[in-house]
Amino acid sequence: MFHTLKKTAEPSRRVPFGHSTKMAEVHVIGQIVGASGFPDHSLFCKWGIHSGGGWKILSGLREGQTQVDNPQSQDAAYFAHPIDIHFATKGIQGWPRMHFQVWHQDAFGRNELYGYGFVHLPTSPGQHDIDCPTWRPTGTFMESVSQFFLGGGPHLKNPDLIYSGADRYKLQTIAMGKIHLRIGIILRNFDKFGIEC
User: One biological-process term from Gene Ontology (predicted)?
Assistant: First the structure.
């Protein structure tokens, strides 16, 4: 005699869309398409999403890094790096914004910062194509000469300066290329909880 036991599925830790706490929800789905306008090829991008205190991540990653793309005959690097993050919120204060660091990897595997940038995520639902301009700090004349011959260059001591404007405007910077995003925004229960975008 054989007895078959029914295997019960373990409850998922991921909260399904629409079944979160009693809060409005924002689902961000899309990709970092690529980057263009930078001086060299062989680029990769570090990214993160910053939101205010009234926001809770239900699922997805808050930060990540793309692969290195080294196109031989094109002026743009293509990452096609997926973004999928699900938030719950009590209000629009602290709306999420994405921040980026674009890096160049040379033939010896050394990484050099090519730019910082950030964008506020759109507040309207639907598909959005976004270009994020980037910049990098410039140093003194001697630091520029050293950067030309040895690589490297000035970096921000505190990466929060990328998206907080208070001290960023004191920096001397140079414009770099752009990061291209394709982002879809899904809003849920904003009208139910009286939140207006």
Answer: cilium assembly
Whole-model pTM: value is 0.80
For residues 63 and 163, give the distance between their C-alpha atoms in angstroms, rounded to a whole number.
15
Distances (CA, A) of 185 to 74, 109, 156, 165, 172: 30, 36, 30, 25, 34
Q: Which residues pair with 28 in a beta bridge?
A: 85, 185
What does pLDDT average to in each consecutive run of 10 residues of the chain (197 residues)? 42 47 89 94 94 93 94 87 95 92 88 92 96 87 69 70 67 89 93 73
CA dihedral 75, 80, 81, 86 (to 10 degrees): 130
- Structure token digits, residue 139: 């140093």
Nearest residue to 100 via CA among 111, 110, 115: 115
Please report, to the nearest 10 degrees, the dihedral formed by the alpha carbons of residues 153, 157, 158, 163 taken in order.
-20
If one counts every other C-beta atom within 10 angstroms of the C-beta of residue 175, the result is 11
The dihedral region occupied by 154, where left means phi > 0, alpha psi between -120 and 50, and beta the remainder, is beta
Instruction: Specify which residues 182 forms β-bridges with.
Output: 31, 129
Q: How far apart are CA 76 and CA 78, in angstroms?
A: 6
